[in-house]
Design a protein that fits this description.
Helix 2 runs parallel beside helix 7, helix 3 packs antiparallel against helix 4 and helix 3 packs antiparallel against helix 7. The chain is globular and about 60 Å long. It contains 7 helices and no strands. By secondary structure, it is mainly α.
Length: 219
């Protein structure tokens, strides 16, 4: 029970986020209106993705320094769930864009950069699948993982700010914090970031356990 407190916290937070995010009053803003509720799903999923990618690259570095297979297993699992959260974030973002921008994909710089970032991580899994030797696969994948994480940060946070963008906080548009992320939204948004991130690590932990069992059976 003590070791699973964070899982209980994850479940409670997400139940709260879903209920409050869909039912609580929201600020009436031009164009956004009720669609601002997607904020509690779209943005926190991307936060979760980034934390998962961060955990993945940390274990990639640990593998390169120690050579322990468990670090490669953890790195791969965290990257897998991170990509899954990235896809969910993109889908929810496209849903939001349909109502606010008039179309799901408008080639906005941040949309394009996000797609490129996910493609870089897709290549990570293609690379892993193309190498037969386990030790060589783990080493090359770990090096590529470091490159992938180093690439996704400027893609998401630097390049979109250098040009015009429809996203809040980019291309001259004010961020949510500066004009409309009021106290009502914050009471759901911040728990959502924590809840979705914990869910990502929870899913990853299950994948790691399954992979360890498969390795033991193979041995």
């Amino acid at each position: 029970m003590r070791t699973n407190w964070w899982k209980w916290a994850c479940a409670i937070l997400l139940i709260y986020v879903v209920i409050a995010g869909l039912l609580m009053p929201t600020p009436r803003l031009p164009i956004l209106n009720e669609t601002i509720r997607v904020l509690h799903f779209h943005v926190p999923m991307w936060f979760g993705m980034l934390f998962l990618f961060m955990g993945s690259v940390i274990h990639a570095i640990k593998y390169l320094s120690s050579g322990k297979q468990i670090n490669d297993t953890m790195s791969q699992s965290l990257a897998t769930v991170g990509v899954f959260f990235g896809i969910l974030g993109m889908v929810t973002g496209m849903f939001w864009a349909t109502f606010t921008w008039g179309e799901p994909w408008s080639s906005d710089p941040k949309q394009n950069a996000s797609a490129i970032g996910l493609l870089i991580y897709f290549a990570y899994f293609i690379l892993r699948g193309s190498i037969q030797d386990e030790q060589q696969r783990s080493k090359i994948s770990a090096v590529y993982n470091i490159f992938a994480f180093a690439a996704i940060i400027p893609l998401l946070f630097i390049l979109p700010r250098l040009t015009d963008s429809l996203h809040p906080g980019n291309g001259g548009n004010p961020g949510f914090n500066s004009y409309d992320l009021d106290s009502r939204l914050r009471t759901v948004f911040y728990p959502a970031v924590i809840g979705w991130t914990l869910l990502g690590f929870w899913i990853a932990s299950i994948r790691i356990k399954l992979q360890n069992i498969n390795h033991q059976l193979d041995d």
